[in-house]
Structures are given as structure tokens and as C-alpha cells.
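Hey,
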Amino acid sequence: MKEASARTACLDGLLSKLADRSAVIGIVGLGYVGQPLMLRYSEIGYRVLGFDVNRARVDELNAGISSIEHIDNARIATARKGGFEATADFSRIAEADGIMLCVPTPLNRYREPDLSFVVNTCEQIAPFLREGQVVALESTTYPGTTREEVVPRLEQHGLRVGETIFAVYSPEREDPANAEFTTNTIPKVVGGHSDACLKAGLALYEKAIERLVPVSSTETAELTKLLENIHRAVNIGLVNEMKIVADRMGIDIFEVIDAAATKPFGFTPYYPGPGLGGHCIPIDPFYLTWKAREYKVNTRFIELAGEINTSMPTYVFGKLTTALNERHKSVRGSRIMILGIAYKKNVDDMRESPAVALMELVRDNGGVIGYADPHVPVFPEMREHHFDLSATDLTPEVLAAQDAVILATNHDAFDYAMIRDHAKLIIDTRGVYRASADHIIRA
């Protein structure tokens, strides 16, 4: 009876603090997911403590500076005035009542899940956890991660998940620079390790998010996130394959998609490009294919889409090679400029950008590579890629000096008329130029 009473008191105390906003919110990982969450909780009156192993990022945020382009410094400064503090001292995790883990879940060199960031974070915070906290994993991962990897680490110093501490999985759904959907307006899926955990998770998010979607387990929430992004990956793979077929037939795939999109039911338009980018869509399908093998299931449809999408930079490079050959040039020694190296338009996010694969193909085949991107002034440090390059300002003279330009990311800031008028050869991977011209090649 005493144990049941203690469990109830532990949960009730947490729920009360979250409800009256006296709870401290701890966010681990202050990147593209963590910073918007921090801002949202700060703006609605919670004190937020942010954790990051990157000390330079910690110092920037404490100085009121964001390294993410679409997040204004003024919002960071306002959060600081409201009590937000960033730290690299993980012992302070004990100060937080609600803890959100927003750390990377990349693939390793064998395209298998790399949970080292999740595991290391849990190991790092475990000694400082206490009764009456709720821990939410937001990182995209395979079904079973919360139960198999997170929960045991939360319990290793005597706490009991569902009784004295609570665990949930609630996948992030951030879309950087999307003005239509923001952190608070995007519905949030929440799955708990137990019924008590789900109550704690819903209380953690209910003040900050307009609509919560509770599900029956952490595994359901984990698979929900994968399905969302696999849906996009498979459909983009389909339209990329259709692009190749249409090109061989001399048909404009973008005209086809626009026409098909007029059907008011049963069709959703997806558009081809130079490959997949971002922190989710190129990676998430492989998390499920890896986990499915444990159950002796082959995810052939998903893997085929992955093969098509990862082959797109090579397809674009082939179009470049052919176009240069027709002009009695080779890639070797040619000046090639990539237009847009972020993974999508109007952001500075470089994660998994297919433009980087294109840059490497040009460099490795002897081309003289350069890039223009108003959102990425200097090529950033990346785990697996390196270019000692800065962005070039586009002018008629710069364009005329290139043997070819590859339009990889269609930022609104580009002057497409100037590019069309002064570039000798344009490899258009985004369907920007609908009118045909001898020096514009669809890819």
C-alpha cells in the first residue's frame, strides 16, 4: 500500500508542476529540433535548461545567438531573459522535471542504425536522474528503442520506470523554415512505456502543443514516425523513377505531375530531384529495414525506393557528363558550379544533402568545383564530407565563366532569369525552367 501511495504521489507531483508551469524543462540537444522546443516552452512561461555537448553552441545561445538561420537571435535573447540557460554540465539534469532527448540518430557506414548518441546521452544523464521526472525520446528510431535501450538505462541507478520515473517516445515533426506549420501547431504523437508514463508524457506536452495524439505504446509511436517518412521516401522514389522514364520518352515529368495533381481525389503530388536530403527521409527507411530483419521480414518495396533515391546524384552527374561531351568537353578540368547545397529550398540545413554527393562526384572526376548558396556562406564541418569552400556570389561574369551549373536546390533568392541568360549550360534538377532551351538540360 505504501509503495502504491508513493507511486501515485510521484506522478501526481510531476503532473501538478507541469500543469502550473513551475516545472523545469530540460532539452538535450540544441539543434534544429531542440531549439524550437526550447523557444516554445520558454515563450509559454516554463524555465528551460538546455544541454549540449557542443560548447561553442552553448556559449552562442547563452550570448543570445542562434546558429540556425531561420531562428532569429531576438527570440533567443528573449528566451534568455525569460530564464533559459544552456549548459554542457549534464549533472544539472537533476534540476529538470521534464526531459526531452533531441539527439541525432544517423546511419553508420554500413547503412545500419547508429544509436550511439541516444545510448551515450542516456548513460550521461542516468547518474543524475531522480524521482518525479519524465524523459521523452524525440529522435527518430526503430520500434523497440525506448523499451530496449532507453528504459534499462533510466533504471540502472535504482529508479523504476512507470513508478518513480516516467518514459515516453514522442517523435519530432519539425520542418525547418516552414511558416505554415510551427512547433505548437503540428500535432504530436505520444506513446508511453506504461499508462502512468503516458499520463506524464501528455502532461509534458499539453501546454505547448495544440493537439496531442496518444497511442498505445512507445513502439506504436516509433513506427508512426517511420511510416510518415517512409511514405514520402517511397513516393519520391516512384516519381524519380518516373522522371527517368519520362525523360527517355521526351515527356516533361513536371508537366505530367502538375496535370495529375488537378485530380481532386486519390493523388498527392510529389516532385523529383537530385536525391533525398534532410535528417529523416534518407535515413528512416533503413531503420525499419534493419529492424524488420529481426522478424525475418524483407522490406523489398522500401529498399527499392532507397536504391532509386540514392542513385539520383549519379543520374544527375551522368546528364552533366553527356551534356559536356556534346559540347566537346569532359568533366575533368571543367568549371562546375553547384547552385544550392542545402537539402531543401530556403534553409541552411545541410544534413544528408544530395548536393554534397554531386560535389564529390564532380571533384572525384577532376572537375573544378564551386558553389553558390545564399543560406550557406561557408561549407560546414560534416562528419563524412569536407570541402574547403565558401559560397560564390552569383553575377553574370561568374556564371559566364562556368562550363556548367547544376541547379541542385531551388532557393527563392536565386535570380533564375540571370542564371538562364548568362550560364553556358544548366543542369536543372528541380524543374525550375519549364521552357525548353538548348543550354538547359532536365535532370
